[in-house]
Task: inverse folding
DNA sequence: ATATAATGCGTAATCGTTTACGCAAAACCT
DNA sequence: AGGTTTTGCGTAAACGATTACGCATTATAT
């Protein structure tokens, strides 16, 4: 205590309340000198808010980085750095791996620890988390398509992106297309078919994991069964990389023999040799848009759903 | 209030204090029913701790993901998932970009918001942050080499890793080595030289950015000035990817004409074509080790510095 | 000069837990 | 049965801020 009440000290830091500029300066100076810093827990308790934003995403593996998620996170962080908020990153491993951390995430949200949350669609846990956020009345933004009716969402139009890829293949004289991915990405499949038009008649589907190894396996299986295939759309870039690598190892020329397009346009797609053509979702923009929407929500401003445009980036694999 | 005092409710959840099994069950059940969840801020204030771990790292860019950092984060998260702690990720952009978020990070640490911090060496801000953590008496672990005397550190021996690369080049009959990197990584340079032995006499240094573009530029410049170069050690994998891509574009065969080794062994090194040989730092292990050390520190157990072994992974680029 | 409004700051209640303390009841001795 | 220990739980004091309220003091208006 340096001659003033705690209320005054609080006012000196809070930018609210009435206080003379002189005492504010004095208190700030003294605080600096004494190394005083307002206790964050007391602050949060008293004012019942927080400056932490939670980012929740399905995590495929605890071993391999998920380039898709990382680039979204980068976009979120860019916004947060300018607002002084902090980011908490919460992977949600597949349910098979024990009960998982969902219970602990749930408690954290319910107990008011977060100012808002951003949730990436893709697993059943994502859906549960949205319900928790709603129940706790914590502002939330959903990234991607979830079977939930909500305005707080930013999506990308996979179908249009896939259609662009289909049209490109037709335009560049390809006749034997294949699609490699999971059975869940119906939108991509449907869009691709639309883009291909009549050529869709000869379309081959191949389902497998969304991994590098999955791409390699897909190449081998397709090559054996359907040697006529001359163009491939992959559900993501890592998958495309695996396909391309195995193709080159099998003396198939990319793009001369088979043209390949990936999905997401993650950073390393352009590092690859040949550089991978990709349907760009603009992940960075996706993340930063989600963050901006969340702040609007938190501040009580109206929020409308956003859609990020897909763009087809042609590189050496085509 | 359902007939018991708040103290009893607290005891029902805290696993400490004395409470009969019957009332605990009763309270838990009722809590579930009423959707009660202990307020995290009050908890933290009262018990003056937190379950959040802060992860601070120098961030090169808000646009490009830093694969090095990401894989460390993955390792940290794996440990955290099993302990019920939460991770807060805090990029530290280069100082040039405005004042930066350091002040806000400082306040957060000083105000007791974090149970512990993990700091990646590499910028002047990293050093400041360590000093802040010390001043605030918050448990911390440093990843990498910082000019600070501390036992709370986990490092990797760059020099030994680089020496392995040097020896490999000599053993496989290369005679005109080059090193591409920054002027800061003296350890790598020194180790490489040692590994090369006599061959070090003809070593060419090239300094530039640690980026993909930097690798491409390096290839062009070196090729023009020193066409005799037949093996290259790059300061990281992304740099190596850029070098390789530009080399292939210039009709130089990898590895026949030039053998290339990268550093870090990030995930995509093996996706590349040709797959990039790399000095593996085992980033995942680096992260999980740091997290485990931090928990020891937090629990008051003795902590000794750890060193992660480097390993040379040979792939197609050699 | 007086009335009125604006400003600055201290008092004390509040936020929702945890936990030392104390007392009754139950459990354990001999 | 009487004494001692153990157990279960309520009381109330922290934890360290924020903020409504009220009282001086100063500024503004008439």
Result:
């Amino acid at each position: 205590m340096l001659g003033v009440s705690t209320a005054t000290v609080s006012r000196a830091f809070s930018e609210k309340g009435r206080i003379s500029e002189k005492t504010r300066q004095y208190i700030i100076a003294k605080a600096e000198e004494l190394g005083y810093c307002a206790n964050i827990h007391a602050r949060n308790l008293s004012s019942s808010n927080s400056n932490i934003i939670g980012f929740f995403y399905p995590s495929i593996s605890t071993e391999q980085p998920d380039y898709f998620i990382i680039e979204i996170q980068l976009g979120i962080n860019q916004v947060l750095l300018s607002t002084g908020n902090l980011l908490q990153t919460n992977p949600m491993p597949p349910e098979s791996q024990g009960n998982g951390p969902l219970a602990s995430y749930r408690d954290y949200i319910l107990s008011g620890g977060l100012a808002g949350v951003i949730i990436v669609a893709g697993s059943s846990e994502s859906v549960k988390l949205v319900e928790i956020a709603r129940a706790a009345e914590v502002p939330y933004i959903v990234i991607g398509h979830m079977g939930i009716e909500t305005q707080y969402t930013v999506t990308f139009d996979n179908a249009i992106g896939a259609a662009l890829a289909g049209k490109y293949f037709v335009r560049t004289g390809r006749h034997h297309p294949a699609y490699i991915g999971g059975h869940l990405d119906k939108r991509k499949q449907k869009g691709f078919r639309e883009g291909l038009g009549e050529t869709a008649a000869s379309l081959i589907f191949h389902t497998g994991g969304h991994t590098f190894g999955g791409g390699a396996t897909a190449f081998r299986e397709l090559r054996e069964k359907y040697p006529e295939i001359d163009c491939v759309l992959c559900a993501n870039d890592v998958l495309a990389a695996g396909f391309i690598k195995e193709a080159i190892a099998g003396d198939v020329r990319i793009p001369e023999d088979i043209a390949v397009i990936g999905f997401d346009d993650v950073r390393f797609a352009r590092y690859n040799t040949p550089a991978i053509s990709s349907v760009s979702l603009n992940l960075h923009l996706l993340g930063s848009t989600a963050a901006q929407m969340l702040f609007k929500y938190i501040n009580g401003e109206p929020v409308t759903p956003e859609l990020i445009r897909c763009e087809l980036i042609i590189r050496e694999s085509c």
Notes: Chain A touches chain B through 59 residues (CB under 8 Å). Residues 52-156+283-308 of chain A form a domain with the Rossmann fold fold (CATH 3.40.50.2300).
